[in-house]
Batch of 2 targets.
Target 1
Amino acid sequence: MQTKFDLVFNQLQEKIDQEHLIKKQRLERKNRKLQPIRQPITKEIYAILISESEVILYESKFCGTRLRLALVLLLVTGIRII
């Protein structure tokens, strides 16, 4: 009788531990920090960037540097062009 009681008690304890683990996993999943969603670049934006980078005047080096940096970041990060 005692062995059956111990067996049932152990099974119940395992079930309770499993439920606690599931609740803990749900809470961790709920509170995790989400990555920002990458938005694809459109063909129009890409065409504007390319056309602007081709006609860069050396008087506006700051603007040209920003455009080149933007193109490099697009290339490195692998953002899709739709």
Target 2
Amino acid sequence: MPKEKLKRYQQQLLDLLVDGGWELVSIDEAAEGWFYGHWTLRSVQEKWGHELIISFFEAPNYWWGITASTRRPRGRDDESVFARMELGSGRYDEAVTAFVREIDDHRRSIP
């Protein structure tokens, strides 16, 4: 996936998260394994202060994806991952909306 397209996808995701009451706390663009970057976000509305990690990865076959987790994941299938989204299906707008909905559902489920 071209970097310009990926940056547009990331910006669209961030805009939706900010509109939904999340703030971007930090960006780590260091690549490690399949992961090529992580965002730390903090809730600034419900469950104020709760943090989550958004991780971007690329599998060896150039399949791109995004995960949301409660801590920095050690791999794509880490038990801390509670939402995931694949890029490249051609339906990014639908996928990103569903991904953000999963994140919001997770936030509401926190005691």
